[in-house]
Amino acid sequence: MEERKWPGPKGMIPEPERNAADANMHNRRYLDQLLVSMRVIDAVEADLKLDLFGKTFSSPIMMPAFSHLNKVGITGRTPMQEYALAAKEMGLVNWVGMEPDEEYAAIAAQGAETVRIIKPFKDHDEILKQIAFAKEHGALAVGVDIDHVFGKNGRYDVVDGIGLGPVLFEDLCEYVKAAGSTPFVAKGVLSVEDAQKCERAGCAGIFVSHHHGRLPFGIPPVIALQEITAEMPGTEMKIFVDCSIESGYDAFKALALGADAVSVGRGILPGLLKEGKDGVIRKVTRMNEELSEMMGYTGIPDLSEMDPSVLYRL
Ligand SMILES: Cc1cc2nc3c(=O)[nH]c(=O)nc-3n(C[C@H](O)[C@H](O)[C@H](O)COP(=O)(O)O)c2cc1C
């Protein structure tokens, strides 16, 4: 028998086999523990239509706020542009993360309704400049990923040589004001406390997320979602959720718990990088089918009828 390398206390999982700090792992486990009951009598085919910020979309499954996928493929487009085109063709909400203005413009030019998420740069003027640029390019909404403040060393992070900084409540108010008539979304909310601050700052939406595990030991976003919807009934903010939404079944669970819409992130990556737009369309089409199937069997005809009482936790 192979000798145990890790001489920890009996009963503990050996170090190399666990990563308890990985929020992705807890998230996946939690989502998988949510089961559904069936309410099939009187059930009809589901309508996935989403009304958001004055526009109508074909599904509550949205593109992710990705960035840095800038290698041009054989179509002459970058993966960022490819998934924007998939959003346009499917009638989905498109999201874009940290991209310079020039690239943002090329993505927006694909014609999808696009939300621009800007990093919490230390230089607030840069944030204000990027908000103005997105507005000029007809953004559906703008926002900041407020959860990307610290790096792994606990200091303010630096991305592509650009320094990030804290997001104070006054800063959030300033960004909301700069967005003006364009809705402002705070991405990376994982507590009622932050959600309430976002509401007070005038945000039109929050994105409940731990940004694929930026926060060690971060709670699953759908747990934060449940707390937010319980503590803030009737909030006018739109509530979006991501992290480990890989299937239409995952999407259903987040929507049933009160999300207005969800993003699929890393779930589209294999198809996107292999086949571009078509790979994304294939993935989201399947997710829409799964979501429709689950809504049908649980007797939920459309998004306005979502009902958390169909969910059970093991
Ligand atoms: C390649 C890549 C780039 C990303 N860039 C950004 C970004 O610039 N801004 C942002 O807010 N989130 C960014 N994210 C995080 C995603 O928007 C999303 O919150 C995260 O991946 C969780 O969703 P998932 O588990 O479905 O991947 C990025 C994620 C990936 C994989």
**Radius of gyration over all CA atoms, rounded:** 20 Å
Widest sheet: strand order?
Answer: 4-13-12-11-10-7-6-5
CATH class: Alpha Beta
Number of folding domains? 1
Find the CATH superfamily: Aldolase class I
Overall mean pLDDT score?
Answer: 95
The total count of helices amounts to: 10
Biggest sheet layout: 8 strands, parallel
Proportion of helical residues: 25-40%
| SSE-based structural type | alpha/beta
- Characterize the quaternary organization of these chains: single chain
Report how far the terminal alpha carbons are from each other: 36 Å
Shape: globular
CATH architecture type? Alpha-Beta Barrel
Q: How many strand segments?
A: 14
Characteristic terms for this protein:
314 residues, alpha/beta, eight-stranded parallel beta sheet, two-stranded antiparallel sheet, 14 strands, 15% strand
Summary of the model, kept short:
This protein is α/β, with parallel strands linked by helices and 314 residues long. The protein has helices at residues 23-33, 79-90, 101-108, 124-136, 169-179, 192-201, 221-231, 248-256, 269-275, 277-297; strands at 34-36, 50-52, 55-57, 61-62, 94-96, 114-118, 141-145, 158-159, 162-163, 184-189, 205-208, 238-241, 261-263, 311-313.
